[in-house]
Fold:
Amino acid sequence: MLVRMTLRARLLILPLAPALALSLAGCPTDPVPEDDAGPRPDGLVVDAALGDVPTYTGDVRPILAEHCTGCHVTGGIAPFALDSYALAQSFGARIVETTQARIMPPFLADNSGSCNTYVDARWLEDAELATLAAWVAGGMPEGDPAIPPPDPMHPPTLDPSEIATTLDIGEDWTPPTTSPDSYRCFVVDMSAVGDQFVTGYEVVPGDPRVVHHVILYEPQDADAAAAVMTADAEDPAQGYPCNGGVGASAYPVALWAPGSGAQHFPTGTGVRVGGWPAVIQIHYNITGSGTHADRTRIHLRAGTGVRPAVITSIADPAALRLAPRMSSVSQVIDQPVPTDARVYGIFPHMHQRGVSVRAELLRGGAGAPECMTELPRWDFNWQLGYYYENPIDVARGDSVRVTCTFDTTTESDVVTWGEGTADEMCIVFFYVTGAP
Ligand code: HEC
Structure:
């Protein structure tokens, strides 16, 4: 065991810290002579003389267990499992490619530090990326089969005493088999929250094989609430189909993807929910395991005496006109900040043509833009929310610039704003409180 750990510690990413890598390779606690360790074309330092390649049981399985098998497990949402040596081996090259490209685990915001960092970011550490790459480059050895598998991850849950109310889609819903992806909206009663503020939530997917992600939307006003109730009433089946948005002005209160446990809003803050019903939008995906009946629930934590947060948005629907046949066409929105505020989190939303999205802050409304959030590779399938590790204070007179970039190569007409798949959106929601 001790030997394994020494070997593992010697795997360093050279481009990041060449001096550190060399000095550790020759440090006194390490008996290997300096010339045994050398840089490889892929930038890793591997001790070839000792056959010093990471192993599945010793090095790779713990990484997959921590970051991947919450979804890549039999009965999970991912299209294949990664929980055995044979499976990990057969996907080896793709594991390296998708982790290095930051496609997997799914977390679209750049968390490198060049444009802020996020709470619970699902980015692998550089050392973990290096271990996966070195394992594949080194022929994917199994390692000692006697090493016990790591304990399965258990995402945090809400204590039953914390749960103010549980939202329930009412009856089982079985996603249709006509397409792999479907979006269904269910109207839910929020009255039990009363005068309290929602301070956290826990989404409990009914059947994890089909629930890809879940968003709880709060209608913007009474008219929007009436619109979702009409949509619900017009569809004879339970809920109504809702491919892009929920069919009315609404903002996301709770966001969930597989593997996320109970979420708490930033400490001491909470969201007031209106006196009308809300909407649970569920993205179902049946690729992995066929369709199954689902009965998803959301536990809400609520309280009083918190700083009220609002979920505000930047969008300019009327101005969204995307020229067709363009591989890159953007909408840029400059929005003056009306009042001093603290921005805790961000949730961008586009449809399938989205390529990237960025939010920037212009202090005093001018000057060099400061990066707030950058999603360099938009993926409609992963509608996620991102909370800053360090919230951003903005002042009245500042301006926030949102840039959504789209690909319209396959379109023959101008694309405009709308709810359907033929339409587009560029909207960024922010979780905001007043200035502290
Ligand atoms: C939150 C759930 C989730 C987590 C966590 C996750 N995946 Fe995935 N993965 C998926 C889904 C769903 C797909 C199918 C494609 C999609 O929807 O993006 C997928 C697809 C893939 C693919 C195939 C994509 C391709 O282009 O070949 C690979 C490889 C992969 N995941 C590897 C990983 C690895 C390695 C990890 C951990 C480091 C990981 N995934 C973590 C859900 C997840």
User: Anything to note?
Assistant: The pocket of heme C is lined by residues 67-68, 70-72, 77-79, 91, 94-95, 98-99, 104-106, 124, 257-259, 381 (CB under 6 Å).
